[in-house]
Amino acid sequence: MLFLQDIYHIIGMEQDTSYMLLKSLDTPEDLRRLEADKLPEVCKELRQKIIDELSRNPGHFGSSLGVVELTVALHYVFNTPYDRIVWDVGHQAYGHKILTGRRDTFCTNRKLHGLCPFPSPHESEYDTFTCGHASNSISAALGMAVAAKKNGENNRHVVAVIGDGSMSGGLAFEGLNNASSTPNNLLIILNDNNMAIDRSVGGMKQYLLNLQMSEGYNKIRYKLSKMFYKWGILNEERRKSLIRFNNSLKSMLVQQQNVFEGMNIRYFGPIDGHDVNNLARVLKEIKDMQGPKLLHIHTTKGKGFGPAEKAATIWHAPGIFDKETGERIVIDTDGLPPLFQDVFGNTLLELAQQNDKIVGVTPAMPSGCSMNILMKAMPDRGFDVGIAEGHAVTFSGGMAKDGLIPFCNIYSSFMQRAYDNVIHDVAIQKLNVVLCLDRAGIVGEDGPTHHGAFDLAYMRPIPNLTVASPYDEHELRNLMYTAQLPDKGPFVIRYPRGRGVLVDWKSSFEEIQIGKGRKLKDGKDMAVITIGPIGNTARKAITRAEAESKMSIAHYDLRFLKPLDEEMLHEIGKNFCRIVTIEDGVLKGGMGSAILEFMADNRYTPTVRRIGLPDKFVEHGPVKDLHRLCGMDEEGIYKVLVSF
């Protein structure tokens, strides 16, 4: 569904003379018809298009600007969509979307019913794989390369584009390890924007680069290898030995080595990632080489927009801005409740000042979860471990084993990647690690890869865990305070993206009894049980339903999903025949399921209506719109209450 302003914007695009080349490129096939000398102008227009669009429709800014030349070169050289390009991470791919048939609808990016925030195979045949999280490109692309070989599609090229810190994820190295031992012709492009691998330059390195990418050199090398295979002189093991010898010789000449050559993956680079013609030349020369290979390019995040080049973190996703002055349009928040993440960040610093055993851990999101507040005040007590969620949890477990109290903050959907680490490295040993799940529940425009939909359901079955969700900011502070007290064991606190409800949020600390819920309101006709901040929405719906229907509705804040407040649930089971459960998480296996299990186990027979996320992946869009679509807004809850 396009909004009226989006339609006007699309019409305006066609009339705009500033995109003379870009508006003629409906598909990459159109791009490939251009002479190479036109590519720099395509890059200029593509970069300007991204700046124009994101200045009024916010999204991930700096990363896509940094790969404009790479995007153009890839689609110019490779026969997409037959050839596969796997992006990692997906917020690099805005230019890719614009060049692959979505130029005129790019103004709907991240909007409800508009373009997806990240590449999605459901949206376009050019989007080869889902990539909302990081570090999966090499594994997925390797699978595609092996499939192409097995299917006899020997002319199909597969390219993994990994960057923006994704190489720090363990899955990337698992993929590299397998690529080095599995027959394939995969090309890996490492987009190094100074967040992954240090620069490695020098005259001899450039000489070897030019030599190895020479078309004549590689033709001779390929013919000789085919001849030696035919004569029985060369086999797969000897070929690997020759590559190792070649890599050793290169390492000796340039006096350095890299991990890729150590894995028998041919390495090329580094080269300038903003020279589109040279990039296209290099890609043409290496694309048909046999065996796995890696091209290392250097780029600048935010390239072409001065403020973004100078402050990459701020301009990763800057919101609305003035494209002429570079001034970010910041909404006045005076008098508004704080963001939950800021309550977490400030409270963590307060607690750390009182308890010298507290440390903070985050996988590459100190500003996103506000752990940068602790890191700025106490640099030696905050740890950013890179895009490595599993490591973050096990690292925290190691510190807890020897007496520290780590607050490990990971977005709810990213914690899914560390599930075994929670079980094996924390829960079994009953270690006092505080797992703070930011972005729990519906998160909005980032869509299904980022919604924190599953944490209540996936944490609930794990023994030894305490699982809690605060009703408001005071509750978050008190849960954090409680979690760092002695002998509390593994403690999970989940809270949503966005603002709380209390302007006066800073309160004194009070211990909360583990597994103890609260009755927020008396009633006699129906019981509503909520967990977390969605209870505030339920409170409004209850007030309205009582006023309009004359019902008397009790409201309980469960507070803890594990352990359950059995005393409170017995009270509800004995006194109510109608129960409504409300949670900002999936209904399958979540809080409502826990209530049903308790009632059945204790032979209570109320009729229970559950409100929460349906058994499907919820699309992207503003949180309020998604809650409405799922029947979780005030109106949806009200309708259930008055019709029950």
TrEMBL record:
Q: Which InterPro entries match?
A: Dxylulose-5-P_synthase, THDP-binding, Transketo_C/PFOR_II, Transketolase-like_Pyr-bd, Transketolase_BS, Transketolase_C
Pathway named in the protein's UniProt entry:
Metabolic intermediate biosynthesis; 1-deoxy-D-xylulose 5-phosphate biosynthesis; 1-deoxy-D-xylulose 5-phosphate from D-glyceraldehyde 3-phosphate and pyruvate: step 1/1
Name the reaction it catalyses: D-glyceraldehyde 3-phosphate + pyruvate + H(+) = 1-deoxy-D-xylulose 5-phosphate + CO2
Give residue ranges for domain Transketolase-like pyrimidine-binding.
Answer: 338-503
Q: Any idea which GO molecular function terms this record carries?
A: 1-deoxy-D-xylulose-5-phosphate synthase activity; magnesium ion binding; thiamine pyrophosphate binding
Q: Which GO terms describe its cellular component?
A: cytosol
Q: Where does Mg(2+) bind?
A: 164, 193
The alphabetized list of GO BP terms reads:
isopentenyl diphosphate biosynthetic process, methylerythritol 4-phosphate pathway; terpenoid biosynthetic process; thiamine biosynthetic process
What PROSITE patterns has UniProt attached to this entry? TRANSKETOLASE_2
Q: What class of enzyme is it?
A: transferase
User: What detail does the entry give on cofactor binding?
Assistant: Binds 1 Mg(2+) ion per subunit. Binds 1 thiamine pyrophosphate per subunit.
Q: Which cofactor does it need?
A: Mg(2+); thiamine diphosphate
Q: What's the EC number here?
A: 2.2.1.7
UniProt: thiamine diphosphate binding residues: 91, 132-134, 165-166, 193, 305, 389
- Keyword annotations: Isoprene biosynthesis, Magnesium, Metal-binding, Thiamine biosynthesis, Thiamine pyrophosphate, Transferase
Q: What does this protein do?
A: Catalyzes the acyloin condensation reaction between C atoms 2 and 3 of pyruvate and glyceraldehyde 3-phosphate to yield 1-deoxy-D-xylulose-5-phosphate (DXP).
Query: PANTHER family attached here?
Result: 1-D-DEOXYXYLULOSE 5-PHOSPHATE SYNTHASE-RELATED, 1-DEOXY-D-XYLULOSE-5-PHOSPHATE SYNTHASE, CHLOROPLASTIC
Family label: Belongs to the transketolase family. DXPS subfamily.
Q: How does it assemble?
A: Homodimer.
Protein name as annotated:
1-deoxy-D-xylulose-5-phosphate synthase
